[in-house]
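To close the section, here is one more complete example, presented without commentary so you can practise reading it yourself. The ligand is magnesium ion.
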Amino acid sequence: MHGLQAWIFDLDGTLTLAQHDFPAIRRQLGIPAEADILAYLKSCAPAERLRLQSELDAIERELAQQVSPAPGAAELIRHLHAEGHKLGILTRNLQQVARDSLAVIGVLDCFAAEDILGRDQAEPKPGPGGILDLLSRWQQSPRDAVMLGDFRFDLEAGRAAGCHTCLIHPENSWPALADWHMPDCGSLLRFLQQ
Ligand SMILES: [Mg+2]
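Output:
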């Protein structure tokens, strides 16, 4: 892991503390309990899709105001940036919300503006499109890259792109999908500093 050049992070629940109550968001939007929110929106008729989309955007902008850093997240990003690695964000959230959240946790300056991909800039995870876009722009091989996140979609996106994967979550819930498992960003930083 120490030799990897390209580091692509999920945002919510990985670099920031999980604050999305997805069941509550589904209820607010009137979306079936078991549905993937973005896939459901895509399946709606255009007028309904626009209405739900703007409601969801408003919810996420509101949540961004209350964001707080996950343990060790800012220090980990600072460390990787200082080492000269390529850093990207791939989130199913809005790009502007991602920028605001990174600013609140104090690491926005570690990311090039075009390397923060939200749901309007890239195929949503678990699709690999966003990872492949970043790697192609950076001229990096998937072999030298890792996708890090707190959910199955992050790991599946990494696998589909052919890069390494790291689950950042207290529980190792998807061992078959993760090359590494770290309980939090601080543990990963300590591992890298060994
Ligand atoms: Mg997440």
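Once you have examined the tokens, check your reading against these statements. The chain has a mean pLDDT of 94. The chain is about 45% helix and 10% strand.
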